[in-house]
Design brief:
It is a single chain. By secondary structure, the chain is mostly beta strands. It has a domain at 6-60. The protein is built from one helix and five strands. It has one helix spanning 65-68; strands at residues 6-9, 12-15, 26-30, 34-39, 42-48. The strands form two sheets. It has a three-stranded antiparallel β-sheet, with no helix packed on it. The model is unreliable at 67-75 and 77-81 (pLDDT under 50).
Length: 81
């Protein structure tokens, strides 16, 4: 999540508050009507969806996302990065 604790999903901006700034969150769609935002197993928020259309692309941007999304078992960047 951005340092301002605001992120965008499916064209909708969601703000969680400064205490959640910089966290890596998971967004789950609940029955096409709501977004559930999780940090680990903790539920941070549930927000209604304003755009019920399909989510067709995933683009992650933010501090540390390139390394964090890499998926290497030891958490280190590859030599090709």
């Amino acid at each position: 999540m951005h340092a301002s604790s605001c992120f965008q999903i499916n064209g909708q901006f969601i703000k969680l508050g400064p205490r959640h700034a910089g966290r890596i969150v998971t967004v789950v769609v609940i029955e096409d009507t709501h977004f559930r935002i999780l940090h680990g197993e903790d539920e941070l928020a549930v927000r209604p969806r304003k755009n019920p259309g399909l989510i067709t692309r995933l683009y992650v941007k933010g501090m540390g996302t390139k390394r964090d999304c890499q998926g290497s078992p030891d958490g280190k960047p590859s030599k090709n990065s």
